[in-house]
């Protein structure tokens, strides 16, 4: 792709990474991602907002050179120090001996630690500080823990464009503007679950901070640019406030069919009552999809056999992710099976300890579910239904 003009004298100069399939050695990227960087050209000075992932420095430079010589850029704004956004900083500082890096105080410390940026090439900004480029004014908004401690947003006053880096993002290479991707909010919800959900309290604070801004465009650092910003802002308000649906997520592992049988029965009972049920086999499921459905589920069900004195390792991993991602669900149900000693439940509860999720009920069966176990499943389904519908009221 070439550089793309967003509005007069504001350009996208980022990279579409169609082939990347994993992020942080953890998050699957089934549709790739993008590293969005933006060039703002004023009458007197020029600023680059964010850069790109290591390995794409030359592509970034070529796009910049379509607009201005990379050696003539005056500022690089580092909204976030993570390498997918700031990895090209050393490359650019080598090619431009005058450029100054703009960052928060914590960002400056990270720029020195990650990229060896010397003090004399850093400008530290605080909440509300501005920099004039000549007809283009950048205002900086501190937004810590979205999702690192140094993060900030940049607001282009005259054009009413918000550059929030990871906030409002989506891991998606396709589409350039939000209206190019009909199911963009699904991708955005997945991204929120993976990245922002653990920091929902900070997300609410950031949304409050930008409430008074007139925003015509939101230009995040991953995924499409929003020309209809209210859509993603309203979605983030719901997600960060913990607004949920009449929805249950079930994640399970089954070695010899017992847990899968119980999961299928429970899912059928709940679905028959009009409850939205999402079922994931942990052997083959995309954890990004699980994170997406954790965003607005009211009850989490984990089902796993006992293996070597504890729950199956994949279920332990899932329980750890639930604890780490801090979803809004208040209740959990644990199901399991065993041959000679049932310890699946205890090991899952040990992982979930301190997560503020209440155990609603449990069911462990020996070998395979019997008639009395199906009766217990029906009672569990009624209990789940009661909590799901009760929270709706």
Automatic annotation (TrEMBL):
GO terms for molecular function: electron transfer activity; FMN binding; metal ion binding; oxidoreductase activity. InterPro entries: Flavodoxin/NO_synth, Flavoprotein-like_sf, Metallo-B-lactamas, ODP_dom, RibonucZ/Hydroxyglut_hydro, Rubredoxin-O_OxRdtase. PANTHER family: ANAEROBIC NITRIC OXIDE REDUCTASE FLAVORUBREDOXIN. Keywords: Oxidoreductase. The keyword Oxidoreductase applies. It holds the Pfam family ODP. It is an enzyme of class 1 (oxidoreductase). Residues 248-385 form the Flavodoxin-like domain. Its EC number is 1.-.-.-. This is Nitric oxide reductase. SUPFAM superfamilies: Flavoproteins (SSF52218), Metallo-hydrolase/oxidoreductase (SSF56281).
